[in-house]
UniProtKB/TrEMBL annotation:
<protein>
    <recommendedName>
        <fullName>EF-hand domain-containing protein</fullName>
    </recommendedName>
</protein>
Amino acid sequence: MRERRFIKFASVEYDGQLYMTPQDFLDSVVESEPR
């Protein structure tokens, strides 16, 4: 469940790997849906 949420909010993809920016992380904690 948590992984699906991470994928939904992570906005940076590098070398086939998804990454979260600090803003993505804050959004994932505060928002229920990504912007």
